[in-house]
Write a structure and sequence with these properties.
globular, binds 4'-phosphopantetheine, alpha/beta, 6 helices, 5-stranded parallel sheet, 44% helix, 18% strand
């Protein structure tokens, strides 16, 4: 059984993330999407909210599980018996940081490889930060996040005003 892990902040999950999840789910027997802490970011949404959004938009994918973890990704992969980390690449600008993390994770856990999936061209510009910025300024985020979570994301961003 080939188990892969797709880690990220998912603050909130975008259609670009969903595109990577759907691609990875078709390549592996099981895909664990894990919400993790990025040391360089302060999340807008709670861990529970981010997991809830992910669960709602992946309910059509039988082999996808949603989880959260607060330690090292390499340790989590070991704990879950995963052989591959899946990461989405949007542009060359993502590459340097992702390459660094892939090598560091392999050093921490030599059995762990990272597979990069190219996002669809239509989502190349998309990021959680862009979604939050548009929502915070009263814009429409339709076409950026799944319809199942669109209202909730907007409502939550307005509460922050
Ligand atoms: O969506 P993001 O913010 O780019 O995801 C980054 C994330 C959460 C995958 C990364 O920060 C991470 O792996 N955090 C867990 C802690 C860890 O293992 N750090 C070492 C990575 S080399």
């Amino acid at each position: 059984m080939k188990i892969a892990i797709y880690p990220g902040s998912f603050d909130p999950v975008t259609l670009g993330h969903l595109d990577v999840i759907e691609r990875a789910a078709s390549l592996f027997d099981r895909l664990i999407v894990v919400v993790m802490h990025n040391q360089t970011k302060t999340p807008m949404f709670t861990l529970e909210e981010r997991q809830d959004f992910l669960r709602r938009i992946t309910s059509h994918l039988d082999n996808v599980e949603i989880d959260a973890f607060s330690g090292l990704l390499a340790d989590y992969a070991d704990k879950r018996g995963a052989c591959t980390i899946v990461k989405g690449l949007r542009a060359v600008s993502d590459f340097e940081y992702e390459f660094q993390m892939a090598l560091a994770n392999r050093k921490l856990n030599p059995d762990l490889d990272t597979a990069f999936l190219m996002t669809s061209a239509k989502y190349m510009y998309l990021s959680s930060s862009i979604v939050k910025d548009i929502a915070a300024h009263g814009g429409s985020i339709s076409g950026f996040v799944s319809p199942q979570i669109e209202d909730e994301v907007l409502k939550r961003m307005r509460k922050e005003d």
